[in-house]
Each structure stands twice: as structure tokens, then as C-alpha cells.
Specification:
Blueprint: H1 12-17, H2 29-41, H3 44-49, H4 64-77, H5 82-91, H6 93-99, H7 106-115, H8 117-129, H9 132-139, H10 144-150, H11 154-165, H12 169-174, H13 178-218
Helix pairs in contact: 2-4, 2-6, 2-10, 4-7, 5-7, 9-10
Length: 219
């Protein structure tokens, strides 16, 4: 399978019925992200940092762990815009494995990076203190999380831990305007295209008027 594993087409219903456990190898990096983020999100003080967590108006908030997994996966794989991540959520087997049928909209993904700096900062603090021994402690737990940790090749665990520690938190949070910049660039491209079409239309009108004028002067 490729590093960014895909299964297309995958509907929202299918994502709830497929057993993704059997689709990921033991050395898949998504397994490590899955366990580390869930362990982090289980801490009682972490949920208190989540500004959307206490908002019960309308639809329930997307789980903190799900949105954090999306961004951590994106950062590890060089996917840095909410638009690109929203596309991957719908087609990427590794993300489906981690999200377990949660399918957040693009605005939820984007809002998380914009609004939840406290959560993201706490995660990077957690990563900085995380060690190979910490993983072994999780794997020794008699729990579902411990069982998931035991399914991962330890060499992959070490690789992902090092990759996470190498991430620049400030640079990643400072990149939050890329979505907006991309949208602005797209709007400018659309406006330029619209103006070009208008210019071409005016040229055609001018040509028709010149042709009519030519005919009138020949009479």
C-alpha cells in the first residue's frame, strides 16, 4: 500500500461498516498517531481545554481526539490545509481507521487549528515529554488502548515519536492563514478569468459593430 493509503469510492455508510483494522499493516504510522492522541485526549485536564467541548447547542461537537488526529496526520504527511485534509478524510483508509466513522466537515477541521491553540500546545508539550518507555507502559495496559499499542511494530513507534518531536509547533500554527491565502488566490483567479471573458465579449461586440459600420458606409 502507498504511504497515503486510499480506497475509492468510499461512502459515509461504507466507512462505518468496513473493518479497517485488517487494512493497515503493523508498521503503519497511523497506528502510532491513533494511540498517542487517544492517550493524550483521555487526560481529564485536556478536555477542559477544548473550547468546543462544552458547546451543546445544535449538533454535538466533533470529538477533540478526532480533529487532533487529522491535523497530526496532516503535519506528519505534509498536508497543511483544512481543504486538503477534508478531502483525505473521505477517501484515506488511514484516517478512516483513526476516526472510526467520524466524518468532520472542512469548517470543523479549520476551526480546530484556529481556535484550539491551547489543546495543540498541550499536545506538543505531551510529545516533548513522551518517550519510548511511555509507549511500553501504554502497551502493558490491560485495556483496548493497550491492545492497540501492542499491535504496532516498535520501530515504527520510534520513527513516529522522533518525527513528532521534530515538528515546529510555532511554524505549524503560523501556517493557519494558508487556507485563507489559498481561498483569496482562488478568488483572484476567478475574478481575472471573469474579466478576461468580459474583455473577449467586448472584443466580439466591437468586431460586430465595426462590421455593421462597414456595411453602412458601403451603401
Amino acid at each position: 500500500m502507498t504511504e497515503l493509503q486510499e480506497m475509492q469510492p468510499v461512502s459515509g455508510v461504507l466507512s462505518q461498516t468496513v473493518n479497517f483494522e485488517g487494512l493497515l499493516d503493523r508498521d503503519n504510522k497511523a497506528r502510532v498517531i491513533d494511540v498517542m492522541v487517544d492517550k493524550f485526549a483521555d487526560a481529564p485536564d485536556v478536555e477542559a481545554l477544548y473550547t468546543k467541548g462544552g458547546n451543546h447547542r445544535g449538533r454535538p461537537a466533533t470529538p477533540l481526539a478526532a480533529l487532533l488526529k487529522i491535523w497530526v496526520y496532516g503535519w506528519i504527511n505534509g498536508i497543511e490545509t483544512s481543504r486538503a485534509l477534508a478531502i483525505e478524510v473521505k477517501r484515506n483508509v488511514e484516517l478512516m481507521f483513526m476516526l472510526r466513522s467520524v466524518n468532520p466537515a472542512q469548517h470543523s477541521i479549520s476551526d480546530f487549528r484556529r481556535d484550539e491553540h491551547a489543546v495543540i500546545h498541550a499536545f506538543f508539550e505531551y510529545v516533548r515529554s513522551f518517550s519510548e518507555e511511555a509507549w511500553l507502559i501504554i502497551a502493558a495496559e490491560d485495556s483496548a488502548l493497550g491492545e492497540r499499542a501492542r499491535r504496532v511494530e516498535f520501530s515504527t513507534v520510534v520513527e513516529v515519536i522522533n518525527a513528532l518531536k521534530a515538528l515546529d509547533e510555532n511554524a505549524l500554527l503560523g501556517a493557519e492563514d494558508r487556507d485563507t491565502s489559498s481561498q483569496i488566490a482562488n478568488l483572484w483567479d476567478m475574478e481575472i478569468e471573469r474579466l478576461n471573458e468580459k474583455v473577449e465579449k467586448l472584443k466580439r461586440q466591437k468586431a460586430r459593430l465595426n462590421e455593421r459600420l462597414k456595411k453602412l458606409t458601403q451603401k
